[in-house]
Structure to design on (67 residues):
Protein backbone atom coordinates (compact mmCIF):
# COMPACT_ATOMS: atom_id res chain seq x y z
CA UNK A 1 0.00 0.00 0.00
CA UNK A 2 1.50 3.36 -1.04
CA UNK A 3 1.87 6.19 1.43
CA UNK A 4 -0.24 9.28 1.01
CA UNK A 5 1.80 11.90 -0.79
CA UNK A 6 1.79 15.58 0.09
CA UNK A 7 2.50 18.46 -2.23
CA UNK A 8 5.23 20.99 -1.48
CA UNK A 9 7.34 23.54 -3.31
CA UNK A 10 11.11 23.34 -3.50
CA UNK A 11 13.51 25.53 -5.41
CA UNK A 12 16.31 23.81 -7.29
CA UNK A 13 19.06 25.14 -9.51
CA UNK A 14 18.79 25.05 -13.29
CA UNK A 15 21.60 22.47 -13.34
CA UNK A 16 19.74 20.24 -10.86
CA UNK A 17 16.61 20.54 -12.98
CA UNK A 18 18.47 19.62 -16.16
CA UNK A 19 20.15 16.64 -14.49
CA UNK A 20 16.85 15.36 -13.08
CA UNK A 21 15.19 15.69 -16.48
CA UNK A 22 18.06 13.78 -18.08
CA UNK A 23 17.78 11.03 -15.46
CA UNK A 24 14.06 10.88 -16.20
CA UNK A 25 14.67 10.68 -19.94
CA UNK A 26 17.18 7.85 -19.57
CA UNK A 27 15.44 5.83 -16.86
CA UNK A 28 11.75 6.74 -17.26
CA UNK A 29 11.67 7.20 -13.46
CA UNK A 30 9.59 10.28 -12.53
CA UNK A 31 11.53 13.31 -11.31
CA UNK A 32 9.37 13.35 -8.16
CA UNK A 33 10.60 9.84 -7.32
CA UNK A 34 14.23 10.99 -7.49
CA UNK A 35 13.40 13.94 -5.24
CA UNK A 36 11.68 11.65 -2.69
CA UNK A 37 14.70 9.33 -2.81
CA UNK A 38 17.00 12.29 -2.13
CA UNK A 39 14.87 13.36 0.83
CA UNK A 40 15.06 9.82 2.24
CA UNK A 41 18.87 9.89 1.93
CA UNK A 42 19.06 13.19 3.86
CA UNK A 43 16.71 11.89 6.57
CA UNK A 44 18.80 8.72 6.94
CA UNK A 45 22.01 10.76 7.11
CA UNK A 46 20.64 12.96 9.91
CA UNK A 47 18.47 10.36 11.69
CA UNK A 48 20.47 10.74 14.93
CA UNK A 49 19.14 14.30 15.24
CA UNK A 50 15.51 13.16 15.10
CA UNK A 51 13.47 12.06 18.11
CA UNK A 52 13.09 8.35 18.64
CA UNK A 53 14.32 5.47 20.70
CA UNK A 54 17.76 5.65 22.25
CA UNK A 55 20.55 3.73 20.58
CA UNK A 56 21.54 1.24 23.28
CA UNK A 57 25.04 0.93 21.82
CA UNK A 58 25.73 4.63 22.40
CA UNK A 59 27.56 5.75 25.58
CA UNK A 60 25.02 8.06 27.22
CA UNK A 61 26.97 8.54 30.48
CA UNK A 62 27.98 12.04 29.37
CA UNK A 63 24.52 13.04 28.17
CA UNK A 64 23.01 13.50 31.65
CA UNK A 65 25.73 14.64 34.06
CA UNK A 66 24.61 14.64 37.69
CA UNK A 67 24.33 18.14 39.18
Amino acid sequence: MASKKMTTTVYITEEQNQMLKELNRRTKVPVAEFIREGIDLVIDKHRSKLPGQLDLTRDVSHDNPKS
The two ends are 50 Å apart (CA to CA). Helices lie at 14-27, 31-45.
